[in-house]
Amino acid sequence: CQTFGYTPDIITMAKGMSSGYTPISAVALNDEIANTLIAADTEMAHGFTYSGHPVSCAISLRNIELIEEWDLVGARGKKTSAYFQNALKALNAHPLIGQTRGIGMLGAMELVKDKAHKTRFEPEGSAGMACRTHCFENGVIMRAVGDTMFLSPPLVITESEIDEMFALIEKSLDETYRDLTT
Fold first, then answer.
1. Cα–Cα distance between 163 and 109 in angstroms, integer?
2. Bridge partners for 99 per DSSP
3. Structural domains for the chain
4. Single pTM value for the model
């Protein structure tokens, strides 16, 4: 929200609260919506039998403390994400990459057959699945959605780990390119 300069009325949160270690989710409301719900002349039955588990809550609280303590979304996080985004943009030079895009610690790479015209491979999704297979074989977890590869490394990643990850991504792209063009 801060990145795009808007204030949401409602925010849903989940895995990031506990770093995915335990199931938890939450909804945050602005005062106007919260007061409307409070003033309503009806009960809002929104709980579940597994809601508010103390272990998930304790893990989430500690996780949020560590995110703040280690400055993972503050100055340190901005430095790491800038490094990540620069490494991502460097992949635009690869013959298989039509475009990279990203923000923060999220990145995407569009795989194309013809870089100049952004022509896609046939059948649609075949390049993405081939690349995903090579990524997994090389120890990189990336998601293929059609012929676009997505990655979102952990907030605690270091610059040297980013370098290692992108070296493995480039190796995977080279192997994919070889498979698709020979």
1. 17
2. 110
3. 10-69 (no CATH), 75-181 (3.90.1150.10)
4. 0.83
